[in-house]
Amino acid sequence: MTDDLPGPFDGGPGGGSGGPGGHDLRHHGDSDVAPGLVDLAVNVRLPSPPPWLRERIAASLGDLAAYPDATEAANAVAARHGRPLDEVLVTSGAAEAFSLLAHAFRPKHAVIVHPQFTEPEVALRGAGHPVSRVLTSADDGFRLNPHAVPESADLVMVGNPTNPTSVLHPAKTLRALCRPGRVLVVDEAFADAIPGEPESLAAERLNGVIVVRSLTKTWGIAGLRAGYVLGDSALVARLRAIQPPWSVSTPAAVAVAACCGAEAALEAEALAARAERDRVVLVDGLRELGVTVAGRPRAPFILVNVPDGEKVRLRLRELGYAVRRGDTFPGLSTDWLRIAVRDAHTIRGFLDALRQALIDVG
């Protein structure tokens, strides 16, 4: 299904507290967390960076008097993905990448595949672009049908794996979206959270394709803002031309270089394997409670459908647990909740609380 929506909406760039269709596009998981609650609302896997990364970041603080230089970080990204340097741009997190995309291009027909992370749409609307939404459906597990994207679309954005649905679209489905004159943007913020990074386009040199990566989720550095863009050298050059000078801080550049090394890649793979095991515990426990789990989750978070979901979410808060509300994602209602995967002990405690919440609300 496609929703054609107008350009910037009431509330200023990004929509303020509201958005088209009544969705609060600026709401994120951190807004659902409060002191004293066990956090299953935010998708940052580690509570803090690992010691080796903290040491590298701390060592960079002595260099803060000098202007930052992301050259070493860019070289590390290029080596990690087997790409030439002109196909890499280090950014201040994925959010800066989306903003750069929104200002570097002037699409006549921008399309975003939803439900997905809302910041790309916020960035496009804030830059004055009208946006159409292609809505995937729970009936077929939120899988993307490339034929649902209008041929007229000259800028298409899709997440893989998709937040919040946890769907991993086949690479061939994404390649089917490529067209002459079209820019395809694939948000792979959680790609390194899946063992082996299957279906990733990060190493593929495809004309018209941009891949956005974030390092904050796997490495527990959301407060640092570290990410990068990979893609068609001509498109990357357009982003580089409008990136503000020194937008990537020295500690962030050091973190990017460190997290793209060979040893870090091995550790990321181990973290991804652990997350898969923990996700099985969560999914199995939810199904035992009779909760509907959307599709075939592959990321370190899952989407569930619960009748009276908002009441259940609020009751869970009273019981000490925060989960992410789903109604701020286009295509979802208050009966959808996103749950971050945590360690098995935390998950079991959460399942006990959810069992009680379902009883209390029911």
From TrEMBL:
Residues 38-354 form the Aminotransferase class I/classII large domain. It is an enzyme of class 2 (transferase). Gene3D superfamilies: Aspartate Aminotransferase, domain 1, Type I PLP-dependent aspartate aminotransferase-like (Major domain). Residues 9-22 have a biased composition (Gly residues). Its EC number is 2.6.1.-. Belongs to the class-I pyridoxal-phosphate-dependent aminotransferase family. This is Aminotransferase. It comes from Haloechinothrix salitolerans. The gene is cobC.
